[in-house]
User: Which sequence fits this backbone?
């Protein structure tokens, strides 16, 4: 039961074995089929950065009794909530979130192998309470590590000859939110401007460490897009030197500080688009390997969002073209 929603449905997450099914029949049942029937069910929302995975996860969790598990390798750490674009508290609508901002990145980096264990524990816990685990996040190496039956920490499924495994340890309903790359790039650029407007620069200025050893590879949260780009700017124009924590320099076009700032913003936009491209490639690779991804085309909703001020029309399109088909897929999946 979800206290925030009147539309909540109760559907079996692990189908009960029919009572008429006799012991001898069960014993004869093919072991693979038997194993499949006892696996936990998981909804997996995939997609490039910025495509609305978090929004869809809430749209589903307010219609089904579900809890969300984050699978973004940067959002798993606490801190930099604006820069890493974590879903805000009021947007969560009371839906419980797991592995979102739960780890301190000043300790060791969370590996895919560790994610596999902690996320599996979250799935068991959620399922034991007869709720549906919904995995949402763009880190495909984490998703792969968690879901495959046999995980090999030495191999990289997205590089070289190592392949994406299709033997999964859960019964998965894969929803892939896709937005055409041209529209997504425009949206991502706008999103970076909005994030700056919401305090990203100030957040990064507080996070900036002037004593950091530049030659050492960045780990954990320090890898987040925005950190290296603005660290370069802050090294030239330290935020405290300006008597303020940070501020978007409002100076003339040819001002070197303004140029350095704009260079950082451009690098963030380029790197975000590059990340999106890489994520789409990885998703296509998983689909090519045989993962049954249900593609939801959100391009129109984003196109309208970019061209209108109200966002109302865009929400209606999102509802019709993304949420409604997703709900149908999930309902069918739960009834299987
Ligand atoms: P790989 O493990 O091969 O890098 P992946 O698909 O597991 O790929 P991604 O989620 O694509 O991992 O993240 C790759 C990089 O993209 C991160 O190291 C980080 O630089 C950046 N990144 C990912 N998510 C975020 C985020 N939420 N905020 C800021 N930067 C991010």
Assistant:
């Amino acid at each position: 039961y979800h206290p925030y929603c009147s539309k909540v449905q109760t559907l079996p997450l692990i189908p009960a074995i029919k009572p008429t099914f006799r012991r001898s029949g069960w014993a004869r049942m093919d072991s693979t089929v038997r194993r499949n029937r006892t696996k936990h069910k998981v909804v997996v929302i995939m997609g490039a950065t910025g495509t609305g995975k978090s929004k869809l996860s809430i749209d589903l969790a307010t219609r089904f009794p579900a809890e969300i598990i984050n699978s973004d390798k940067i959002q798993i750490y606490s801190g930099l909530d604006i820069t890493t674009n974590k879903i805000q508290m009021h947007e969560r609508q009371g839906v419980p979130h797991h592995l979102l901002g739960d780890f301190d990145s000043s300790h060791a980096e969370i590996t895919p192998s560790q994610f596999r264990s902690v996320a599996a524990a979250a799935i068991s816990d959620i399922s034991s309470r007869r709720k549906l685990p919904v995995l949402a996040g763009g880190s495909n190496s984490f998703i792969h590590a968690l879901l495959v039956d046999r995980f090999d920490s030495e191999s990289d499924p997205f590089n070289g000859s190592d392949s994406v495994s299709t033997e999964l340890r859960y019964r998965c309903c894969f929803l892939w939110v896709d937005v055409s790359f041209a529209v997504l790039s425009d949206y991502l650029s706008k999103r970076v401007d909005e994030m700056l407007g919401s305090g990203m620069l100030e957040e990064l200025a507080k996070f900036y460490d002037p004593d950091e050893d530049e030659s050492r590879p960045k780990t954990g949260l320090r890898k987040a897009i925005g950190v290296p780009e603005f660290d370069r700017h802050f090294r030239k124009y330290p935020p405290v030197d300006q008597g303020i924590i940070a501020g978007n320099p409002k100076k003339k076009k040819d001002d070197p500080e303004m140029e350095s700032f704009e260079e950082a913003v451009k690098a963030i936009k380029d790197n975000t688009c590059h990340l999106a491209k890489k994520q789409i490639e990885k998703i296509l690779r998983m689909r090519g390997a045989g993962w049954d991804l249900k593609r939801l085309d959100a391009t129109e909703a984003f196109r309208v969002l970019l061209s209108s001020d109200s966002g109302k029309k865009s929400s209606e399109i999102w509802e019709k073209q993304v949420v409604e088909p997703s709900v149908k897929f999930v309902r069918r999946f739960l009834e299987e």
In short: The chain has two domains: 23-180+291-335, 185-272.
